[in-house]
Q: What sequence folds into this?
């Protein structure tokens, strides 16, 4: 699976048959990011920043069938899928809808979500593109940004200027 230019769709390429097909047919409705394939290989969880026919935001996690491209709106928010649980019952997601950011455990078939951990970093220290997780949910790996800078004052920088 690879992202198409414009971030509106992914294409699925079968390396054996060289067959290629889009993940969804209706790619004009929004922008799609961070696909995570279920352990059984039957569906993909994505962050889809899309809109309904009235222009209302339906940003959140969507489940897309790899068999018939059907789509299920799972949960609203700035939710970035990280990994599926080994059983396929849960989707682990990075949530920066509110600060501080959290890692959630979202049931794939309905039910209450759970906060797995509230991240102890600053608001902009972690990007959803820099987080991964083991499928058993026991380890989270993330790169944390840290900014450090110096201020220099220079006098007589140009010796020609008096």
A:
């Amino acid at each position: 699976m690879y992202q198409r230019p414009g971030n509106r769709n992914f294409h699925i390429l079968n390396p054996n048959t060289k067959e290629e097909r889009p993940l969804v047919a209706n790619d004009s409705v929004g922008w799609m990011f961070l696909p995570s394939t279920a352990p059984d290989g039957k569906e993909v969880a994505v962050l889809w920043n899309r809109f309904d026919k009235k222009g209302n935001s339906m940003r959140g996690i969507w489940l897309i069938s790899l068999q018939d491209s059907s789509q299920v709106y799972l949960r609203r928010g700035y939710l970035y899928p990280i990994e599926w649980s080994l059983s396929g019952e849960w989707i682990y997601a990075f949530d920066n809808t509110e600060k501080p950011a959290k890692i959630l455990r979202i049931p794939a078939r309905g039910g209450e979500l759970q906060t797995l951990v509230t991240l102890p970093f600053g608001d902009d220290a972690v990007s959803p593109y820099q987080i991964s997780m083991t499928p058993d949910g026991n380890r989270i790996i993330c790169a944390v940004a840290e900014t450090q800078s110096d201020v220099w004052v220079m006098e007589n920088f140009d010796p020609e200027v008096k």
User: Anything to note?
Assistant: The first strand starts at residue 2 and ends at 3.
